[in-house]
Write a structure and sequence with these properties.
Layout (H helix, E strand, L loop, with lengths): L7 H16 L6 H6 L5 E8 L3 E2 L3 H12 L4 E4 L6 E2 L4 E8 H31 L6 E3 L9 H10 L13 E3 L1 H7 L2 H11 L5 E5 L2 H10 L3 E5 L3 H11 L4 E5 L7 H5 L5 E3 L2 H4 L6 E5 L2
Parallel strand pairs: 6-11, 7-8, 8-9, 9-10, 10-11
Antiparallel strand pairs: 1-5, 1-12, 2-4, 3-5
Helix pairs in contact: 1-3, 1-4, 3-4, 4-5, 6-7, 7-8, 8-9
Length: about 280
């Protein structure tokens, strides 16, 4: 049971790495082994301790599957991307008690993190609901968790930008300086990687025009005030997609969206989202 857009092999790698941090070598949960008979079976509920948006239940399920050798049943009670309230039961798990408690912290670490990202993203998506703009994530992700955090952004109503340095060419200020100009940098990228989409970071109207003339597919408008963004939209917006980024806040989101840009890029979706508090409680 893996969510849409999540690759089982990638999730398993993350789960095994996370469990290794907790279980050591050889793997063991000394407290559970000492206090709980191997044949004891229990049921536990995964419960929201705060309101928010859920993402990562299929990942949590995979943690329980690994620790139990597939003997834990995971009954998911809410859909991914659902809004929940404090006290809502998100899933019910039944199986060997040792396995439930061994999996608990790793499963919750991943679930709380992903749900926190989804909850933060939903706030942005709600703020932009009546505009044409969509909130985007960035590569400012937790090392090793990018695939999960970007999945959580989607669950929260946002959109993924590039996954890495391999699927989209991003010509930024240092690339422009190294190559000599926007036009030169674009030409070099296009010659080497003719099929890769190219985005150019711009800070002025003149740079925006140069990038479009060079052939850029879309522009990253960095730290532009709304007034300048409107000028860029009017000048080139019908020829490329436009993304605003830099010092964006929920309070200013509508103002930036009103300029006519297609996307608002927010690194904080992944680098600054607090977790959503979720717990696992054994039934008495």
């Amino acid at each position: 049971m893996i969510g849409a857009g999540l690759d089982l092999a990638q999730v398993e790698r993350i789960v095994y790495t996370a469990l290794a941090e907790d279980l050591g070598d050889p793997p063991r949960d000394v407290t559970s082994e000492a206090t709980i008979p191997a044949d004891q079976i229990d049921t536990a509920e995964i419960v929201a301790r705060a309101p928010g948006v859920v993402a990562g239940l299929p990942v949590a399920a995979q943690v329980f599957a690994v620790t139990s050798g597939g003997t834990v049943t995971f009954d998911q009670r809410v859909e991914e991307g659902s809004r929940v309230e404090r006290g809502d039961v998100l899933a019910v798990v039944t199986g060997p008690t040792r396995s439930l408690l061994t999996a608990e912290r790793t499963a919750l670490n991943l679930l709380c993190r992903m749900s926190g990202v989804a909850t933060h993203t939903r706030r942005w998506a709600d703020r932009l609901a009546d505009t044409k703009a969509t909130v985007l994530d960035t590569r400012k992700t937790t090392p090793g968790l990018r695939v999960l955090e970007k999945y959580a952004v989607r669950a929260g109503g946002g959109t993924n930008k590039r996954m890495g340095l391999y699927d989209v060419a991003m010509i930024k200020d240092n690339h422009k300086l190294a190559a000599g100009s926007i036009t030169a940098a674009y030409r070099l990228v296009r010659e080497r990687f003719p099929d890769v989409p190219v985005q150019v970071e711009v800070t002025t109207l003149a740079e925006a025009r140069e990038a479009v003339e060079a052939g850029a597919d879309f522009l990253l408008c960095d730290n532009m005030r709304p007034e300048l963004l409107r000028e860029v939209v009017e000048a080139v917006g019908d020829r490329v997609e436009l993304e605003a980024t830099g010092n964006l806040t929920l309070e200013t989101a509508a103002e930036y969206a009103a300029t006519g840009v297609d996307y608002l890029s927010v690194g904080g979706l992944t680098h600054s989202s607090p977790i959503l508090d979720i717990a696992l409680d054994l039934r008495p």
